[in-house]
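Hi all, posting the design record for the shared folder.

TITLE: backbone redesign
STEP: 1 of 1
STRUCTURE INPUT:
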């Protein structure tokens, strides 16, 4: 929106040309998302507390400390994140860009699915929300819809293909089967962030780190000079996604202010599904799907810990971990919550550096 206003008057005020730069607007979107969260955070948290007298229902089979320390904390804090992202994006992004609208649609759709799940938990005063079959069914349907929107807005030569890190020219076209891959990535990313969101600040900082990494990736993907230099696919229009990533970073920073231990609010499924789905769609739009698995390796690790636990238990009746997801295993081993959170942040930073390094090692 601001870009359009600046364009109208830049012939009179030449300094308004700065608003045409993606880098400037990305920085502005970070600050806007941050300050919106800080300004309206307490108001939204108070409203959530009023409609959730007992707070988020805590898993009875979870760590015993959670039943005491986290009792009464409201959930659905993802509403604050989504609102911050939307306000920031509408102010600073080029709304003629189809990739921006796909990102907006994704965060809204998965936010609504998460909201329905959170609302059911509060309504029933139970840690169980809508059934997993119903939740996954909706995710598959909308994952297909989002994939379709992405594919029709990409060049037909690359829309169904995947590039592989460390290799200069290894590009595989999966044809119609790419739909299955894309849906898996979007759903997998959404649920992986959801599984990781179990301790104060644990999920939001890795989300922010992944968003920071992809703000750089989408920028160079949408710049013909940088993409040619780094030997990655040039995808016109994806550079604008850096502004959306900026809004994610700012919203995440602002939310962390309230989610830092001891948390005043949890993001809930409303936030985790929305953020994870958004990151998945961004990776697909810039054709760096595998990099998402590397940079977001913490989310992958948490997800695999659940899959392994369930499979081994069904086969042998034994447990690999004291409790899954993985962060609960370390809680059961006696690690302090802050120790787990900070060490998992460090792991994400290392994985992000490895992922970004692959852009040059080709």
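Okay, here is what came back for every position:
SEQUENCE:
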């Amino acid at each position: 929106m601001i870009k359009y206003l600046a364009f109208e008057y830049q012939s009179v005020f030449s300094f308004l040309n700065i608003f045409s730069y993606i880098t400037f607007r990305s920085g502005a979107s970070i600050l806007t998302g941050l300050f919106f969260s800080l300004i309206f955070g307490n108001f939204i948290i108070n409203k959530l507390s009023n409609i959730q007298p007992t707070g988020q229902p805590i898993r009875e089979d979870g760590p015993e400390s959670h039943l005491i320390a986290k009792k009464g904390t409201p959930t659905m804090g993802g509403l604050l994140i989504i609102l911050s992202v939307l306000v920031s994006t509408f102010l600073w992004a080029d709304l003629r860009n189809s990739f921006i609208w796909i990102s907006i649609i994704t965060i809204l759709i998965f936010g609504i699915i998460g909201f329905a799940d959170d609302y059911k938990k509060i309504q029933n005063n139970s840690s169980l929300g809508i059934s997993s079959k119903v939740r996954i069914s909706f995710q598959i349907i909308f994952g297909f819809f989002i994939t379709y929107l992405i594919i029709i807005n990409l060049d037909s030569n690359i829309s169904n293909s995947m590039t592989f890190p460390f290799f200069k020219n290894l590009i595989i076209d999966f044809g119609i089967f790419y739909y299955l891959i894309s849906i898996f990535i979007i759903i997998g990313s959404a649920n992986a962030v959801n599984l990781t969101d179990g301790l104060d600040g644990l999920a939001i900082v890795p989300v922010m780190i992944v968003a920071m990494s992809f703000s750089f990736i989408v920028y160079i993907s949408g710049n013909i000079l940088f993409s040619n230099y780094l030997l990655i696919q040039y995808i016109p229009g994806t550079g604008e996604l850096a502004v959306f990533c900026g809004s994610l970073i700012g919203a995440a920073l602002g939310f962390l202010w309230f989610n830092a231990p001891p948390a005043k609010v949890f993001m809930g499924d409303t936030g985790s599904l929305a953020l994870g789905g958004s990151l998945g769609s961004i990776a697909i739009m810039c054709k760096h799907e595998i990099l998402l698995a590397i940079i977001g390796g913490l989310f992958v690790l948490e997800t695999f810990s659940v899959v392994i636990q369930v499979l081994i238990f069904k086969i042998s009746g034994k447990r690999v971990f004291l409790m899954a997801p993985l962060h609960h295993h370390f809680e059961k081993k006696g690690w302090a919550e802050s120790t787990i959170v900070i060490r998992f942040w460090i792991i994400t930073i290392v994985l992000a550096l490895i992922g970004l390094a692959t852009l040059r090692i080709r």
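COMMENT: Residues 28-294 form one domain.
Let me know if anyone wants the other runs.
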